[in-house]
Amino acid sequence: MADNKKKSLQVKTGDRVMVIAGKDKGKIGNVKKTMPSESKVIVEGANMVTKAQKANPMAGTQGGLVKVEAPLNNSNVMIVCPACEKVTKVKHEMKDGKKVRVCKKCGEQLDV
Prior knowledge:
With about 110 residues, the chain is mainly beta.
């Protein structure tokens, strides 16, 4: 069943996150890309897979095996608060008429 609703994720591109499940559990990295429709995120240095790449003489790329980051489910990552340096859940608050993300542990604003 295709779900055409736009989903929202707790993490955004550029957030520092920790992988909390899977083969890379405990790794910390920045979010490179988010895919809300699929509920997936790509984290730098996490979930590395080997991919066969075909040579393209026109673009000047060599063929061979390359390591790339594969998407992770967003439920397998948690935000690391920049202020308290702890893994935390996200709380939403209204500040100056805007909805912002806040660390549940220290109360520091996550959106800059």
